[in-house]
Design brief:
6 helices; mainly alpha; single chain; elongated
């Protein structure tokens, strides 16, 4: 699992810098599913499930984080950059961070 962690981290950096093709995206999803399966098996085998979740809450949050990423975010930022109505509400660094009115 440690090797998969580093592979997933490399895929995350590649996605943020260059973007991923379909095969690499699927590899990242498969690794994420493997981590979720490992957590689910460990939780199922734990005698005190609440105690296991409390002791591994950071791992649970880390597994949930990719699901909370919005795939529509780049589309929203593209829309706001190309539509004058949305751009008029943007914060302008030229005017000290104040909103345009």
């Amino acid at each position: 699992m440690l090797v998969l962690s580093f592979v997933w981290l490399a895929l995350l950096v590649m996605e943020l810098v260059w973007g991923l093709n379909r095969a690499l995206w699927l590899l990242g999803q498969a690794i994420w599913i493997a981590f979720i399966a490992e957590f689910a098996v460990a939780l199922a085998l734990a005698p005190d499930k609440l105690r296991y979740v409390r002791r591994n809450c950071l791992q649970a949050l880390a597994l949930a984080a990719p699901a909370l990423r919005s795939p529509a975010l780049p589309e929203c930022t593209h829309w706001s950059a190309t539509h004058p109505a949305a751009a008029s509400t943007a914060i302008s660094p030229r005017y000290g961070g104040r909103r345009w009115s």
